[in-house]
Structure formats: C-alpha cells, structure tokens
Amino acid sequence: MVGSDVPYMLMHFDHHARALRVTVKETATGKNWFTAISDDYLPRNSTSTGFYAFAWDGTTSKKNGTVLTVPNGTYTLDVSVLKALGDSTNEAHWEKWASPTVTIQRTPPPSKVGCAAGTRAQAGVPV
Questions:
Q1: Burial class (CB in 10 A: 0-12, 13-18, 19+), 22
Q2: pTM exceeds 0.85
C-alpha cells in the first residue's frame, strides 16, 4: 500500500441503508483493529449492476477519534449494514458479512543510493 495503491471494497445496495460499518480483525489473533469505514444514510444503487466503491487506506479509528495504522499482516474485514428503518440496538436489523482474508504488505520507502552520511552531496555542496 503506497500512495494511491489502496484496496477498494465494492458494495451493491438494493435498498437504502441507515448505516455502514466496516471493522478490521487480525486473522491470527482475532484482535479488533476498530473501524475502517463508517458512513450513514446510504442510498440504494440506481441500477441492478451498479455499486459503490469504498477505499481503505490501511487506517482505522477508535470511537474517541484516535486513528491507528494497521500493521502488515492478515486481516478480515467485517461489514455490517443497518437496514433503512432499522433499530441499531436490534441485531436482527443488521446485515453482516465477513471478507476473505486480506493481506496488508506495505513496501518500505526507496533507499537513497549513492550518498554516504557526511558526504558533500548530502550536505548540499555541489560535486
């Protein structure tokens, strides 16, 4: 995951949705990495083949607003959608789906080649 190279979740809604929540769980340990995507009052798709694309940049948020960067590893994305007139406290009003395993593997930034520490080029002196 570098720059704009991020995964997308494609979702189709036959009906309006009151809320959408996508949470992240570490596959090996089941550790909760909190909320990756949260949105309210989503309209239905206008065509039978249409979909919405939700980008995930590898970060999650806690309820208090703290943003976490999910480390390299394997995860499951748990999607929960509250029906249009649903009661958020009633489990029967939520549609749920768990993704297949997703792997995050960020590449390290490219290393600087050709300049050792303390050289004239690194210090801004022309060579």
A1: buried
A2: no
